[in-house]
Amino acid sequence: PTHSPTHLSFCRFACSLLIFCLFSLSAHLWAEEAAKLVRPEKRLTAIRAEQAPRIDGILDDDVWKIAPKADGFTKREPEGHEGEPATYPTTVQVAYDDEAVYVGAFCYQDPETIVRRLYRRDQARDTDAIGVSFDAFHDRRMAWFFGASPAGTLEDGVQFNDTDYDPTWNGVWEAKTSINDEGWCAEFR
Question: What pLDDT, on the 0 to 100 scale, is given for residue 58?
Fold first, then answer.
C-alpha cells in the first residue's frame, strides 16, 4: 500500500515522540535510582555551652535541655544494610565551649535488648555502640572517630579514604554511658 506524505510525516512524528517518551522515562527512572544513592546533606547546629556538662552518661545538664537534636540516622553496619533506617531511633546533640566539644546521644531501645558486652579498648566487638566522627580539617578525606558502648568501653581512631580505619591513634577524651527504662545514652567530651 502507498501512504500519503501526511501519513508518513505523522508516522515519523509518532515514532520520534515514542522514542522521546521512552528516553525521558528511562532518564527519569535513572535519576530516581541515582537520587537513592546520594544521601541528602544533614546538618546539626552546635551551641555554645554556658556551663560544661558533667560527663556522667546522663543527659540532664542544662545544655542538653536547649541544644537542638538531630535524628533520622541510618545504618553503616552490617554490610549490605548501609543507608537503611536505624533499627532504633537515636538523637544526638552537640555543644562546645573554649575547652572542648560535647556530644550527647540517646539511643531509644528496650533495655532488655541492649547488647552490652565488655571488651578491650579499640578492639573488635559484638555489642551495641555509638560513635561520632569529626572531619576537623573539613577536607572530607580523614576524620577522628570516637565511640562508646553501653558497657562504657571506648574506641577511637582515624578514618580515611572513606572506608579505611586506623585504631592505633589514641586521643585525649572521655565518655560515659548509662542505661535507663527508655534505652541508653552516651556523653562525650
Answer: 97
